[in-house]
Amino acid sequence: MAHRDTSKAAPHDPALRDGAKMMAQALAQWRSQGPRPDLWVFAYASLVWRPDFEAAEQRPARVQGYHRCLEMWSRVNRGTYERPGLVFALMRGGSCAGLALRVPHEQVEALMPVLWAREMPNPVYDPRWLKCHTPQGPVSALAFTLSHHSPSHTGTLSDERYREIFAQSCGRYGTTLDYARQTFEGLLRHGIHDHALERLLRLADADAPHILNP
Fold it and tell me: N or C: which terminal CB in the chain sees fewer CB atoms within 10 Å?
């Protein structure tokens, strides 16, 4: 799951949806899963290498019908309004390997506002319950997805545009390049090799003398 940007939404942005109501709806859906259910969260980006909470269990997981992509604008955390950066999104199509993180039921009520503040300060994401296939069997996990129609979606970027962003975009949490590398390395530590991300990072490596230090 990507670390959300806290930049102010434009007036037409669907991020102006009521985030508190969306969290309340997610909690209601979680409670409806049965008596005292644990919460599963699908991690596909920064939640893999910096979850900000201790999971009681983590499992390798794959979601069908969605894929990880570096196609979400970041104008505060990994870039600026003048030089926007990028963060990862989970978008329709293909499949995505990540981690299913389990939160014990007695911790969910306290954790959800913290998780929401991290992922949904501007509620651009569409929270969904996705079926995660794990070695121990399927689980229904909360995942933060992005619509292709969202103003935060970059659309298809050229290799040259990625090179430019890797070389120039830096926000309050560091560069887009550092974020992409940390995600790639974090996934590798769990045996997940993202070949599409590796190809993008090679674009930066080719221009290494011109890249900002993370």
Answer: C
